[in-house]
What we know:
Number of domains of chain B: 1
Oligomer: heterodimer
Distance between the termini of chain A: 61 Å
Structural class of chain A: alpha/beta
CATH architecture of the largest domain in chain A: 3-Layer(aba) Sandwich
Largest sheet of chain A: 6 strands, mixed
Number of strands of chain A: 9
CATH topology of the largest domain in chain A: Rossmann fold
Radius of gyration of chain A: 19 Å
Strand order of the largest sheet of chain A: 5-6-7-3-8-9
Shape of chain B: globular
Strand content of chain A: 15-25%
Shape of chain A: globular
Order of helices and strands of chain B: HHHHHHHHHHH
Strand content of chain B: under 5%
Number of helices of chain B: 11
Amino acid sequence: MANVEKLVVDKLNHHFGFTEILNDINFTLSKGEVLSIVGPSGGGKTTLLHLCAGLLDVEEGKIDNSFTTSSFAFQESRLLPWKNVIDNIALGLLANGVTHSHAIKLSQEVALKFGLEEDDFEKFPKDLSGGMKQRVSFARALVVKPSLLFLDEPFSALDIGLKKELQTHLLNEVKENNLTILFITHDLMEAIRLSDKILLLEADPGHIVKEFEFEVDIQSRDDAFVYNETAKILQDKTIIDTFELYGLELK
Amino acid sequence: MKFIYKILKDFPSYLWSGWGAIASILLFIACWDFGNQIYGNLVLPSPLETFKTLFLMLQDETVILEIQTTLYRAFVGFSISLIFGSLLGLTAGFFATASMMSRPIVTILVGMPPIAWIVLAMIWFGMGDETVIFTVVVASFPIIFVGALQGTRTLDGELKQMAESFNLPWYMKFIDVYFPHIFSYVFPAWVSGLGMSWKIVVMAELLATSDGIGALLAVARSQLDTPTALALVTIMIGSLMFIEYIILEPIKREVESWRM
């Protein structure tokens, strides 16, 4: 097929009222790529992601999204409190017109894969721990087999064990299904572990100041690599400026 | 269908959980009997005498007819409030201006004592069904309206966005995202609206009509027939408890199991 799936962001600006949130954002995300956008909190990262996902209307500039399917995993799990685990996971499938029984079956399979147990299937979100909720949220986003996955800091409230487990799931999806990911985070280490390319977004207004690319394939990155690169990147002048890391040494 | 089945399935265990409630009612009746022993039959007839009177009344066809009249008025009034209160409340909740403008009006409606409405209604409609039904509507409408308004006003923007991100079709958005939330506000409002209707209908009848439970109560008062008055009160409370605990509560439990 000649029509390759990709997401092209071209000269994107965005305002909320008179406040400029994003200024001249340009990047291209190709099929099978993992692109991270890192930057300090309040820098317009989430706005950018919502614009790309079509949850906000583009005002200035252009976003061209030719991916056939996409789904979203939010920072908070955003489960429907009145639906049990399986029905929550099945939501996206049902919206795509999958029959009910088939959707339930697929949801159960994916739930087990994401470390949920059969005892949990009938539970309501109020009876789940934060980590379990986020497992359900990931299962819900991935069960629809999206071609493009939007991630809005979904790991930020998880313990390191669960974080690593879910990240491994994502890396498997990238390997097996050629999943494309647009990933927002403020955690450099996370970004280095998962992404082919990192864009650094400086705040006020949000604009891209630097781009990092890594030689080593994401599937073969070990802890040593991640720590090493994190240490290196923290020495970077632009990173220090963007995250305002100077002058924080103990006096 | 699944819901109805679940409600029926859980019903026995729900009833079984009612022993505590029954014990507290029996304790209340014991206090009542104690009051009777202190103050005597004229002021406070004993529970036994009241229940005997009640039993005799329920065998009297004219009394049954009066109860039906009251039921009819309460039903019509409450239904009008239910339909219009819910619809208007839901619509008002969707528009910031409408909800802002309706607040003071609701305050006026709630703040105006029902007794004042009865007087006005008597002047407007005379002594009959309309006066009673009008009063019931005016008293229960604001409760339902506010419940419905809160339901739509408090819809969770984050869940809306989530629904958006999964491209839910409109009917799924309504059934799976909006409805359960709105219902959890509207249903309790219906329950309190019903309780209000049931109280107001008797009050309006007592002042404005010559039939219905309220009118019977007025007669009992003029004849100093305390056992009959208490028996009528027992009918009122008994029927309200039946509707609330036997019919509505099991539904509520099932529909809101995700909350408890």
